[in-house]
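Section 3.1: Structural characterization of target chains.
Under the original work plan, the team committed to producing a structural model for every single-chain target entering the pipeline before any wet-lab resources were allocated. The record below documents one such target. The sequence was received from the expression subgroup and is listed exactly as submitted; it comprises 135 residues.
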Amino acid sequence: SYMFLAYSFGVKAVASIANWVTAEDPLRVMGDIVGTWCEAWDYFFFAVFLMRARDAFEANLASTGSEVNHLLRGMAALLSFFKRMQIVAAIMVIKGLCMHAARFGIQQCLSERFASSVNRIKRPMLRAIKRRALR
């Protein structure tokens, strides 16, 4: 849990601030800056959930009362951790696909597909018009 906390602030937050400070045009890399900052917060929440689970399970060892409450709190914290991890994983996949699409020039790809689709539709229509004109 401390590893997530250290990674959150020591790597992701520092990288986000360093990208913002060193960028020639911060607006151009704003997506990377915001993405890194959001990842820092995600790792921070990972650390918080794991610390809560650890504290609940440790309280189970030292408790003289009902251990069920401590076990349920620990399980709830772990459930929150894994739910958050699923959401973050899905967001990272979508973010990665969007970034690669932007880097490979999705506009050019879409414009080429649009042009080929138009040509595919236009060719038979032109042939039909020429056939009618020749009759």
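Residues 67-103 form the longest helix (37 residues).
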